[in-house]
Structure formats: C-alpha cells, structure tokens
## 1
Amino acid sequence: MRSEYRITLVDDHSLFRNGLRGLLEHYTGCRVVHEASGGEEFLATLDTLETDIVFMDFAMPGMDGARTTELALARRPDLRIITLSMFGEESYYSRMVQAGARGFLLKDSDIEDVIEAIDSVMAGGSYFSPQLLSSLTGRMRTRENISDEQLSEREREILIAVCRGLSNQEIADELFISKRTVDKHRANILEKTGCKNTASLVVFAIRNGIVEI
C-alpha cells in the first residue's frame, strides 16, 4: 500500500486548483500541502517546501511553467513535476520536456489518470497522456544526425522498458542484470540520442518507431 503523497498545485486558476484538490483528497494517500497561483509565488516558498509531486500549469501570468520548472529543478533536483496543460498549448510541450517535467496530463483528464500519473512518477517512472504524446511527436526536435540504428539491441530493449515507465531497478530485475549495468546503458542512450530526460527519450522512441502509442 502506497504511503501518503504530498502534493503541490501551481496554477493561476483558483477554481481549477479547488476542483483538483477536492478530487485528490478523496483518495487515501493524497494530500495537497501547498498551492501557488504563479511561478514566482511557488519559487518563493521552494526552499522550505516539503512536497513529493508538483502539478505545474504551463500558461500562467508572468513566469510560465517551463521557466518555473527549470529554476525549481536547478534548486531542487529531487522534485517530481507533472505538467498540466490544454491542447491549445501544443507548441510549448517541448519546452516542458527540456525543462525536466516527468509527466504530462490534460486538464480534462479523468482522476484515475491523475492518480496513475502520481503512482508512476513516485515509482521512478513517468506518465504521458497519449494525446499529448501524439502532439509532441509531431513537434519535438531531436538531433538530426541521430538514428535509432546507433542503439545496440540491449539499449533498445532498455529504452522500451523506460517507455513502459519502469525504474532502473525494475528494468534490472526484469532483464536479470545489475542496476549499475542499466544505469550505464541508460547514460549511453541519453548521450547517443541527445535526449535530456525520460520525457524526451519517450518522444525519441515514438518518433523512431521503437514504441507505439
């Protein structure tokens, strides 16, 4: 049984925050510990904030979600940030990927999807709304001189496992290899693909036909 997850909501619409907080707190193990109406307000409390998950809106007055995410992760690399967005903001998804977001959700997602995203990210994986991934794969740029053919069979196998949301330890257990070996392969995959994080690896894998959505 999962322990209680401390959640922060960063969104400039109080009605949306109230609605999401109410839905989350109906689930055992989810507790909203902090809310902020913008990036600057969130960053001002970051040093003393004890939270496990941050739901980050992209389109906010002043500092947007991408810049807020970049600055927050520079100070707190341990943060697990999940983007909340609408289809009208498709052109900005790639910025959130590069900023380090671990997941993407549409604002009209079912609460079950929200809980799944929380559980996946807390387990060391990631979560991406299929609709958002469809948008991302058409817009995300990867280095033009990179081909998935440069990946070894083992690296492709590990990349597929990463796209399934498995942590390095879970991949090691499934493939009967050490976590240290998985760590090394994953670092090689990031270097070869020019990707920065799990989110961009998923996009790379979809664009190159390694996985399907």
Note: The two ends are 29 Å apart (CA to CA).
## 2
Amino acid sequence: MENNYFISCESTVDIEYSYFEKRNIPVIFYHYVLDGEEFEDNMSRDKKSLDEFYEKIEKNILPSTSQINEYSYYEFFKNNIKDGKVLIHIAFGSGMTPSVNNAVSAAKKINDEENGERVRVIDSKCSCVGYGLLVIKAYEYSESGKTLDETLDLINDLSTRIHHQFFSTEMKFFKRSGRVSGPVATIATILGICPIMRLNNDGKIVAYDKVRGKKKAIERTLDEMKAHAQNGADYNDLCYICNSKCYEDALVLKNEIEKNFKKLKGKVVIYDIGNIVASHCGPGTVAVFFIGDER
C-alpha cells in the first residue's frame, strides 16, 4: 500500500545529493558567501567545491552563511506538495539555526491555502550527518510501510537519540560563530587542547571535556560511543563519521569503531562536512553519529 506522505530535508544533511535524488527526496539548499560571491551548498555535486572553499579559508578569506527565508520555504513547499500527500519536512536543527521558524511559518501559509494539513515541519535537533542519519531513518520508516503518525512519532523520538560526538583541533571558527564560548576556544588553542563536544537535547553544542592531542580525542570519542550506543558493544544500526579536511583522523576513528563494534549495520561511512557547517567549524573537526540513549 502506497503511503500518504513523503519526506523532504535541507542541504545541511551533508550526505551526497545523489542519495536523495535517487529516492525522490526533495532538498532545499542553503547558501554561503565567500570572497564576495554567493554559492549554493554543494552536497558533493562538484568535487572541487570543498577544495576551493578551504583554499580560500587558508588565505583568511572567511565565509558567511544566512538562514533560509520564509519565502524560499514557501516556494519549496508549494512546488513539492503533490497528489494529496502530506510532506514531512525535517528541518536543520534549531540549535544550529532559527531557520526552522521560517519553515513553520511557510508551512502554515501553505496549509491555510490548501484548507488542510499538507506540510508538517519537524525540528530535527540534529546537525550535519547526524541530521542526515535522521532523514535516512525517516525514509526507511516510510519505505517499510509505517503510517504518517507512526513515522512522526518515531522521528521525534529518534531526534534526541542520535548522538553527535566530536572534537576539533581548530577552535577559531567555533569561537567566531559563537557555537563555543570565547574563553573555551582561546584556552584550547593556547594549550593545544582538543575540546570533546556533543549536541545536547536542544541540538546545541556542549564542550564538556578536553584532552591533549588527536590520539586522546579519538580514544575519548570511542569511549563515549561505547557508553551511549544502543545495545552497547552489540550496536547493530548505522554509524557515520564526518570530517572537515582531516580524513586521516576520521579513518583512524572508523577503524577503531569497526574493531570495537562487530554488529554494525554495514561499514562505517565517512563523509565530508559540507560548505555550510564547515563555515562554522572550519578545518580539523571529526564527528561520529550513532543511535543511542537520550543524549
């Protein structure tokens, strides 16, 4: 039986656009400005995009980003509602951006015009590939025949059980964007310390520990996964890693996870952090995403 709903999302899922294109999952794109020029979030459609992005950053040409406005959401929803189905739009977490408020306002306008609930907006409370993981699970729910209400309940439950565990060797961008306090970032930089960070239940970054060096940071990150993953060492669901221009560090973490978690659903996949999130974290960040207890 065909479902009476479908899923959409935003480009900050940081998984290749081809995944969503093949599954007819509509995506609305963020934009960023770099060196006076505006670009659309790339989602790996152009493999050179990130290289050029980091080349500019290395020259101290820094990017800026903005919210998706209400009109853009309205046009996106209007162009994608179809066949009487409900569109479940899973938005980039409100802990990262207030854009979700614009999505809610646009959805209300659509629903008022259509005299019925055609668009439902969900605050993912997630970021980057953790947000992507939530969208992928939502798509799996829809494909498995879950009803609209069942899928909505499952997404809302899962949104605060997708762990975002990460560290960074470069805190300048976290400080610049206000996502980590100035004193924390300054001390970390001076002492060569890697803050250990996560997202809390509101989808906001919390720096809750610190270690010296990448090796210790990887060990601490692995310990957190052991402590919080669903079923512990018997974790048997998806696990993703992302990185911002530090693939070798991500690969070390991937190998350690696969060594310690033998029942994973497939291999650990490494993704690049996309242009929008990278505008706020800069190079040197590694994150792991998995399903676990309430974070």
Note: The two ends are 35 Å apart (CA to CA).
## 3
Amino acid sequence: MKIKWIGKYTGSNLPVAEIEPGAKSLPEVTSRSAFMLIPVFLMFALCAYCKHAYLGGIAFSRVTWMIGVLIALVLFPVHELLHAICFPAGSQVFLFYTAQGFGITCTTPMTRNRFIFVNLFPSMILGGVSLILFLAVPCTYAFASTVLCAFSLLHLGGGYVDYLNIIHLLKLPKSAVIQISGPKIYWK
C-alpha cells in the first residue's frame, strides 16, 4: 500500500477510476446521515447505565472527559490509516482533509465484503475495543474509565458515515464488486 497526500478536498481533486459500463453508484452521504449517531448514543447510554447499575458506578470529571476527547481527536488520523491498511495489497491510497476531518480513498476494485471490512475495521479497533475496556475497568479507576469512555464515544460516533455505507452495501449482492471514483462509490 502506498499513501499519497492530496491535501484539502476541493470537490474535484479526488482520483477518478474508469468505471465499467452499467455500474451503479451507492446513495451519497449527506448531512442527514448524522441520524446514524442515534444508535451510537443509545448504545453508550445503555453501557453507562449497565456499568452504573451492575459494575459499581461511574465517576466522570470534565477535565478527564476533555483529556479523553483530546486524545481521540489527535488519533483520528490513525482511524484513516486503519482504513488504508484494509485496502487490497499494492493499492494506492489517497489521504485528504475536509472541514469535518480527514478522509481516505482508493480506486482499486474490491469485493463487497472486503469493502464492508474496510468501513468497519477502524471503528471496531479504536471505538469497540476502548468501549469494552471502559466497561471492564473498575469504577475506582475513574481517570482511565472516563478517558476510555470519551475516546470510544468519539471513535464509534466518528464512523457514522462508514456505518451508512455498510447499510447500503448489505443491500447489494454478495458477489458485487465495489470501486470508488472521485467522491462516489460504484458497484457492479
């Protein structure tokens, strides 16, 4: 895998691939996609309730919460790098940024299941593992518990666009081939 930095996304500077005739595009992700955050917040509310009710409570402080948020923000580029390592071997991956944060794209065709994995892997590693650790850390370790909770919330919530892609991908045939070209995702 080779990573190429393309700087700020301007709307027209993403790499374009030659798309096979008859390929269809997945629905575009819009600001309405933020509805995907609702299940993430509900899951966190349930986890916090369970930890409070069954595991001895929760102790948060604003300072510790902000430390967790800052650590999560600093590690958002790692989220994109985790996407990058999931693309097929030998692929050229393009890293860019927008007002919303970093992004990554690759024009190499891949199977539907691999693209689901590309979308899911970073959130599960950074968000899922830290959520499990948050639940496992005793409430007496308030600093670690709070940092893990904030970190997990940001990394699971930050993947909402990926979750929407996964929902669209699950509607496609298992044999579908996925290819990104410019800002769109195509399948055939």
Note: Strands lie at 2-8, 24-25, 92-98, 101-106, 110-111, 177-181, 184-187.
